[in-house]
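Input sequence (127 aa), recorded before submission:
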Amino acid sequence: MSTPKELRYSEEHEWVKEEDGKYRIGITHFAQSELGDIVFVELPQVGDQLKSDEPFGSVESVKTVSELYAPLTGKVVEVNEELEDSPELVNESPYEGAWMVVVEIENEAELDALMTAEQYEEMTAGE
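Predicted structure, token format:
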């Protein structure tokens, strides 16, 4: 699967998509493929504050539990409730159906620290 060019990426394998001044966050195809079959997703609630590089939830697979790290600082304005009943969406549709949260960010300069698709592909090529 190709890495969507319009997204930005964190070193912790989260993707970020800008939508009308808000930012949708999920985990990458690479991350879900490394984890295996996802059986549970734990996410924050609307109104919670995320802090860049700090955990904001977790995904549990048949292999392990992995924390989700916030790529940006901001307030959660939307949570993907579908993942509660259908965690397998993370495996089936990491960039569309399995987004995790939408945030209003505090500091747009944090976006500059995120990688382009090309940089992310270079980082994961050796893994």
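Checked by second reader. The radius of gyration is 13 Å.
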